[in-house]
Write a structure and sequence with these properties.
The protein is mainly beta. The protein is built from one helix and six strands.
Length: about 130
C-alpha cells in the first residue's frame, strides 16, 4: 500500500495489483508464447473442428502421402504397349490386410505414361 502525508496535503493510499500477465490484452493476456490471434483463425492455434484451417482433414492427407510413398499401395488394371506400362490404376489403403480389395481404400489414382521407343517421355498421376 502506498500512503503517508505530505506537508499541506493528505495522501490517500491505494493498492496496485501486481500480476504476471497483462489484464489489458484481451486475446492472450500478454502470454507471448501464444499467438496474438483467435484460435482457428489465420495465425492462431489450430483446433480440430470444421474451421478454416481444415485441421480435421490432416490425418487423411498424411495417409494419402504415406500411400503415395508405396505403403499399402496396389497397382491393377495395367495396360502395356511394346512391353511398357502405359496406364494403370493405383489404390492406397488404410489397412494393410485390405490391400488389393475394395475395402479401406483411402484414394484411387490413374497413371498414364507416354513413350518414345523404349524411353518414357511423359508420366501423369491423377487422383480419380
Amino acid at each position: 500500500m502506498i500512503g503517508g502525508t505530505v506537508t499541506g496535503m493528505i495522501v490517500i493510499g491505494t493498492y496496485i495489483s501486481l500480476v504476471d500477465y497483462d489484464p489489458q490484452d484481451t486475446v492472450r493476456l500478454g502470454l507471448t508464447a501464444l499467438p496474438n490471434a483467435a484460435a482457428d483463425a489465420a495465425g492462431g492455434l489450430p483446433i480440430s473442428d470444421a474451421g478454416g484451417l481444415d485441421f480435421d482433414n490432416l490425418e487423411t492427407l498424411i495417409e494419402r502421402t504415406l500411400g503415395m510413398n508405396q505403403e499399402n499401395f496396389y497397382i491393377d488394371n495395367t495396360v502395356f504397349a511394346s512391353g511398357n506400362m502405359t496406364s494403370c490404376r493405383i489404390r492406397i489403403y488404410s489397412v494393410a490386410g485390405s490391400v488389393g480389395s475394395a475395402s479401406d481404400v483411402i484414394a484411387t489414382y490413374n497413371m498414364t505414361a507416354g513413350y518414345s521407343g523404349d524411353e518414357m517421355t511423359t508420366y501423369k498421376m491423377v487422383k480419380a
